Amino acid sequence: VVKMVQKYQSPVRVYKYPFELVMAAYEKRFPTCPEIPVFLGSEILHESRSEDGAIHVIERSCKLNVDAPRLLKKAGVEHVFFIQRNTVNWRERTLRIEAHNETFASRVVVRETCSYSVHPENEEWTCFEQSASLDIKSFFGFESTVEKIAMKQYTSNIKRGKEVIEHYLKELISQGITFIPRWTPPAVSSQEDELNPALGCDSGDIPLDSGAPGASKEQAGGACPPAEAASPEADKLDADYIERYLGQLTPLQESCLIRLRQWLQETHKGKIPKDEHILRFLRARDFNLDKARDMLCQSLSWRKQHQVDYILQSWRPPALLQEYYTGGWHYQDKDGRPLYILRLGQMDTKGLVKALGEESLLRHVLSINEEGQKRCEENTNIFGRPITSWTCLVDLEGLNMRHLWRPGVKALLRIIEVVEDNYPETLGRLLIVRAPRVFPVLWTLVSPFINENTRQKFLIYSGNNYQGSGGLVDYVDKEVIPDFLGGDCMCTVPEGGLVPKSLYQSEDEAENSDHIRLWTETIYHSASVLRGAPHEIVVEILEGESVITWDFDILKGDVVFSLFHSKRAPEASPREAALAGPSAGDNVQLIARTWVLGVDYSRVESPLVCREGESIQGSHVTRWPGFYILQWRMHSPLPCSSTSLPRVDDVLASLQGSAHKCKLIYYYEVLASKDFR
After folding, report:
1. Which of 248-257, 483-492, 516-525 has the lowest mean pLDDT?
2. Bridge partners of residue 666, in order along the sequence
3. Which of 43, 99, 402, 616 could form a disulfide with 207 if both were Cys (CB 3.0 to 4.6 A apart)?
4. Does residue 137 share a domain with residue 79?
5. For position 465, which CATH number holds?
6. Start and end of every GOLD domain (predicted)?
């Protein structure tokens, strides 16, 4: 059985006229209305009034024309009929309209509910709301076609409804009718009040056979409740607010926003995100309600877990970051978007990662995104129009192979992933200037991880092409173009420079324990090397040619780096692990003292002496499967046999003082040979 369900929920549309005058305008379109060609006529089936005249009910059969004559004739139908029940309550000043289809009722179920009521804050204004559902059970194999016709025809008539009401309101006013007295209870002896306006059909209220599609297919019984289920007290959006603060949305986009917002109000226990934030997730998923809801829920969970809502209050960038991070806010672009400048070519990304750790860099990037959202809200108020994204100007002057350092690119990709998942559709435009020849290599590495919608916002200028017409002046006012790009505006963004190696830190020193960790593992690991107790890590290679790459910095002391191969899996000796215990900290020994070099394992890279303060990068193409052991041992100026193994008394001696301890931070990765660049 084919089953397709669509839902629609309108925002609150406001008529700045009293309820009674709006009802008089509503009456003028009865029984037919030239303004609504699809409505061919109606017949009253039943009409009743309460004894005091306060309640007036009319039930009609409405005849509609549908823009699908071939399909209808194939089904043996000329027109489509709906049953509409209107209930006006003059005492409460409300009109409720309920409608359902009579034609094809066994195959397609269309239900619509509309309501007119007094504005809660101004009793001289009238509110209109509309919700509907379309449930296609089966339609001769044309279910998808019916759905498309439904969406097209229904949405084309939604906003038309308000226009028609306003047309007749103006007509009434031109006739001198500007006030209609409110209903009052009749005296006991008086006749029934004959002055109550009769009720006709509103184009915005007429249910078309095309039903009420939402912006996404939704199975019955899904996680998102139907829009009609909202409590009357729920905080609602009105159409004027949407246009002023969120921008022009189609009726279906409005419906998606309202329904997702409503679902959050009913189910989410934490802080409800702002409307513009919800809208970004809908845009990121092309207004597919289910996908946007899943993405948003994951992000809300992430924000709560890592206390991101408080990052602007709690995060204070370290002095080193303030000095060497070459980014900052700088006025706004021509569209009123906040402008962020990043002098990436001048930034020592390698030094920042090694001195601060990627955790601090990520936290700083998150604070920039949070600040960007705050600035968008401020600019929306300043410029009187919706500003929901910002512009980033990236200067690549100085970009070189140092920036293509693999651990740095990996850290960048991880940051991009977090931002894409939690700050979608916040980047309005990315202007890249002075792109050097090495840029295509970086772009090849990074672009696959950037959302297609985001990639389309990139504008790239090489050399001096950013100058003159077609360049920056098309997007940024000349008065705010920074001085370092040939403009007249002084820019306070730091100029960066190389981070001194003396500031490089080990993993435990770099991470701030006051914060909940955003990443459970870091790119760089720290290790201690003791006299007689090297630090070793093992890499298992299952197939022939792979590439082991490494990158490490010696923070203290001199060490010797070696690479070994073994067919046997090494294990840390319990005795040695216990002896290396608390003082050794992050020190692991894997080569058993009983192993013999040349028998149990073999050397595949010559020993390399690494001095304090040095940065070492290298790689090895594996020739055989098995276990490869990376080893760092303390360098001794005295000659010693490369086959000598750490003895228990050597380890005990090494624990006597901290002078016999080296420190390093390292990164390693295994790549298929085809992926190695």
Report:
1. 516-525
2. 525, 552
3. 99
4. yes
5. 3.40.525.10
6. 520-670
Task: Tell me the one-letter amino acid at 286.
Answer: D
When mean pLDDT is compared over 277-291, 295-309, 429-443, the highest value belongs to 277-291
What amino acid is encoded at 648 in this protein? V
The burial class, CB within 10 Å (0-12 / 13-18 / 19+), for 203 is buried
Contact 281, 299 (CB under 8 A): yes
Residues 616 and 479: their CA atoms lie apart, in Å, by: 46
Q: Write the DSSP string, 199-231.
A: ----TTTPPPTT----SS---TT-SSPPGGGS-
Same domain, 569 and 662: yes
366 phi and psi angles, rounded to 5 deg: -65, -40
Residue 204 sits in which domain range? Answer: 4-183+196-214
User: 358 and 487: one domain?
Assistant: yes
Beta strand spans in 120-243 (E):
122-136
Question: Could you tell me the CA-to-CA distances from 437 to 55, 400, 441, 463 in Å, in that order?
Answer: 77, 9, 8, 9
Question: Are 452 and 535 in the same domain?
Answer: no
Whose tokens are 């095309």? That residue is 210
What's the CA gap between 664 and 525, in Å, rounded? Answer: 8
Q: Decide if 241 is inside a domain.
A: no
At 460, the amino acid letter reads: I
Position 94 in a domain = yes
CB 620 within 8 A of CB 604: yes
Structure token digits, residue 155: 């949405």
In angstroms, rounded to a whole number, what is the distance separating the alpha carbons of residues 128 and 108?
26
Kindly report, residue by residue over 302-326, the tens digit of the pLDDT: 998 888 988 998 889 999 999 999 9
Q: pLDDT higher for 658 or 543?
A: 543
Q: What is the DSSP letter of 673?
A: G
Q: How many CA atoms lie within 13 A of 626 on its CB side?
A: 16
- List, for residues 243-265, the tens digit of each pLDDT value: 999 999 988 899 999 999 999 99
> Shortest CA distance to 632 belongs to which of 494, 490, 537?
537
Instruction: List Cα–Cα distances, 204 to 36, 237, 240, 594, in angstroms.
Output: 10, 18, 17, 86
Phi, psi torsion values for 227, nearest 5 degrees: -60, -30
Tell me which residue of 474, 326, 451, 463 sits closest to 394, measured CA to CA. 326
| 8 A C-beta contact, residue 557 and residue 529 | yes
DSSP string, 491-556: --S---BPPPGGG---HHHHS-TTS--S-SS-SSEEEEEETTB-EEEEEEE-SS-EEEEEEEEEEE
482: which DSSP letter?
A: B
Q: How far is CA 31 from the centre of its chain?
A: 48
Does residue 119 contact residue 14 with C-beta atoms inside 8 Å? yes
* Those residues with Cβ within 8 angstroms of residue 674's Cβ, 6 or more apart along the chain or in another chain: none
Torsion of CA 49, 54, 60, 62, to 10 degrees: 160
Tokens 């298992």 identify what position? 540
AA identity, residue 341: I
Compute and round to an integer the Cα radius of gyration of the chain: 35
Whether residue 492 sits in one domain with residue 543? no
Place of tokens 């660049």: 677
Residues 6 or more apart from 302 whose CB is under 8 A from it?
A: 308, 421, 422
CA 470, 472, 473, 479: dihedral to nearest 10 degrees?
Answer: -170
pTM value is: 0.71
Are 364 and 417 members of one domain? yes
Would you give the end-to-end CA distance of the chain in angstroms? 53
| Cis bond upstream, residue 31 (ω within 30) | yes
Report the distance separating Cα 626 and Cα 540, nearest Å: 6
Using CB atoms within 10 Å of the CB of residue 58, give its burial: 0 to 12 exposed, 13 to 18 middle, 19+ buried: buried
